[in-house]
Amino acid sequence: MEENIFQGMEYVYEVYKQGSFQKAAEKLFISQPSVSASVRRAEERAGCCLFDRSVKPLALTECGRQYIDAVERILAIEREFSEYINDRDGLKRGKLVLGGSSLFSSLVLPPLMGEFRKRYPQVTLELVEDTTANLEEMLLKGSIDIMLDYESEGEKLFDSEVLEEDRIILSVPKSFVDGKAGRLSKYMLDHSEIANVGASGVSAVPLKEFKNMPFVLLKPANNSRRRAEQICAKQKFEPQVIMEFDQQMTAYLASCSGIGISFTGSMLISRAAPNPDVCYFKLDSSLSKRDVCVFKKHGRYTTKAMEVFIDIALERKV
User: Fold this and answer.
1) pLDDT at residue 269 greater than cutoff 80
2) What are phi and psi of 216, to 5 degrees?
């Protein structure tokens, strides 16, 4: 009988995911020599080298890239069939993998996961926390089932449901406002108004009021940073950026600590405890509005577990 060319593919795939033989061995709970030997045997079956071991970090060869693409298609087919069987069993087993950035993984997904677990305790839940770009790639490959994030431009690649509208708010350290409190008081939002800021009768603040004040923004690739720059440009205002961060939560905490002004989502602020050291201001721009959505890959088989989780999210409206 002809040898299966993909025998041992799980070792190759783990090395690819971890980027090293040592990390793959730790993940698989076996020794590094065992992983190396298994990969060498897989390469012999494939008739080519799958990894370029002469570079660091470890890289795939052209043959290796084709091999990994094939492995991911095989795994996707296995997952879909397994999901079909789980659906027939009425969610008495199975697995649901969720993805979210640090913000969604810490503030939004946990209560939804808790509700899902109450209803279907036998289904294993896994949460992957990563950047939006990486999560989108995982969603396309099928390594995660559902992603929670801000609205996406990839309409043809993903199906989505809107869960909540998020409004970008200007978070200003109270010490920055003290000298202008009289003039700025009419623009200030109470913490209780943040969750429904769109309906608030408070006027939007002119950004020129914060000229020459320090700002803390997210790094350029971030959705919030791009919107913040566009909002400023529309008001012919250029913020003095003194620090940049990867996460919205970090920038907001920097504002709470008096470091600088940040652009923060209402979703984050409304779920955080009121902070007397920060003042909140409404922004006058359609760019300050964005939807929080739940995403799944377009055309993918929607499992019962995915369907139920999305329903729970829509019921709770996060």
Assistant:
1) yes
2) -120, 115
Task: Tell me if residue 156 falls in helix, strand or coil.
Answer: coil
Quick: pLDDT tens for 41-79: 999 999 999 999 888 888 999 999 999 999 988 888 887
* Pick from 33-37, 166-170, 199-203, 278-282: least confident: 199-203
Phi, psi for residue 136 in degrees, rounded to 5: -65, -40
- CA separation for the pair 70, 76 (Å, rounded): 10
pTM listed for this prediction: 0.71
Q: How far is CA 19 from CA 34, 57, 76, in A?
A: 16, 7, 21
For residues 169 and 97, give the distance between their C-alpha atoms in angstroms, rounded to a whole number. Answer: 31
Domains of the chain: 9-68 (1.10.10.10), 78-163+292-316 (3.40.190.10), 165-290 (3.40.190.10)
170: β partners: 263, 281
What the block records as the tokens of 29 is 């709970």
